[in-house]
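Minutes, project huddle
Topic: does the predicted pose make sense with adenosine-5'-triphosphate bound?
PN asked that the exact inputs be recorded in the minutes so nobody has to dig through chat later. Recorded below.
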Amino acid sequence: MFNMQELSIDSVAHKFNQQAILNGVFINCKVGEVVGLLGRNGSGKSTLLKIIFGSIKADYKYLKLDNELISKGYLSSNISYLPQDNFIPNKLTVAVAIEIFCNTYKKELLKIKFIADNLNKKFREFSGGESRLLEALIIIYSDAEFILLDEPFSQLAPLLVDELKQHIKNLKPIKGFLITDHYYRSILDVSDRIILLHNGCNYQIQNTDDLILHGYLPDYKN
Ligand SMILES: Nc1ncnc2c1ncn2[C@@H]1O[C@H](COP(=O)(O)OP(=O)(O)OP(=O)(O)O)[C@@H](O)[C@H]1O
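Predicted holo structure (tokens), as shared on screen:
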């Protein structure tokens, strides 16, 4: 039988200072799909991505990659993660950062004009939004099959948001994406499925009415 590549995390429980942040969360993502993760500020979206990547050790979790239990995402070359804050050191040039993260899809990445035009520039020479775009592109085009993106759109002007969405769509046939951002329209647009984190649990979202029902979007009718 064809073995569908899948990243899944089940029964996630985590507390900070006795306060339960995640409680029985389940989420999965297959190659070929974009899963959008929404939730209010403080609902635990970043915590969940950090638990999958391994930078936070959950109180409990059951993390599987292609049906095999793994302890930390970063130990697998098959998972890449864009954290909420900048992570590429300021003194690195774009070319060096690409060397570190990208091999398989390097040719495609170098076709992007903004990358090609700025290969020898250091990260400290870019604006906040420009370096965010570069970091997101480097992670999207990294060798990993599963890509975790924490607020990739947040510092980007609308045209760049559209460009980034297009790159995600281009790579979707060969990768799985788990993505969170408060630009929820962009998340709805780029995602095949939406999961809402609320009160420590995950909810499958079918439409914007569900987002209103769970208190994520304001209900302007009432
Ligand atoms: N290291 C930490 N120590 C204590 N509490 C933490 C820590 N990290 C996060 N928290 C708390 O856990 C909760 C979830 O935080 P998290 O950053 O995962 O939320 P989020 O959904 O990503 O929020 P936002 O949309 O605002 O980025 C918050 O209430 C936060 O205060």
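Observations noted during the meeting:
- Residues 6-213 form a domain with the Rossmann fold fold (CATH 3.40.50.300).
- Residues 16-17, 21, 39, 41-47 surround adenosine-5'-triphosphate (CB under 6 Å).
No decisions taken; revisit at the next huddle.
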